[in-house]
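haha ok so turns out i had the wrong file open the whole time. this is the CORRECT one, sorry everyone. sequence first:
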Amino acid sequence: MAQQRSTSRGPKGPSRPGRSGAARRAAEARAAAAAAAARLRRVDPRQNPKLTGRAIILVLVCAVLVLSFASSLQAYLQQRRSIDDLKSQIDTRQQQIQDLETEKARWKDPAYIEAQARQRFGYVMPGETSYVALDSDGNRIQPAGELADPSTVGEKKESPWWGTVWDSVELAGNPPADPDQPAEKITQKGTEAK
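then structure:
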């Protein structure tokens, strides 16, 4: 027959002397955890990356979205450039319109019309004698002055009379220093007077 061992048999096999049931269960749990970790390492998708059908579809959808966004962005930027160009053209045209309206207002002024008739056509008023200044080459000398814009003439506000009087009182009390006179007065004998 079989020999009897000195160890007693437990429910799951022979038990060793000095080992309790809790220690045995902890050792079995560690062994089971190590086996499960070994199985997980073998199945870990990070170690064996595979391109699945879902991943391919996701990449294609993202690529289509990026391309459509890029074309939309390009169209948007092109429209912004076009709008900026049109705004600059509008500003230029508005400035031209304003210049033409100013010119139109000048032609409503009889003095401007008379000056233009004298300048462009050489007209003179009845009873006047026309003189033409010529340079050394015999060419007509052009005048340097021009008439002012009628809308700017007469815009100067006159100050009230008491303001002018008060300014003259202040000037009399504190006369400005004359830069042509010396700082000290010199007499005939060379002595300085104070």
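Residues 1-6 have pLDDT under 50 and may be disordered.
again sry for the mixup
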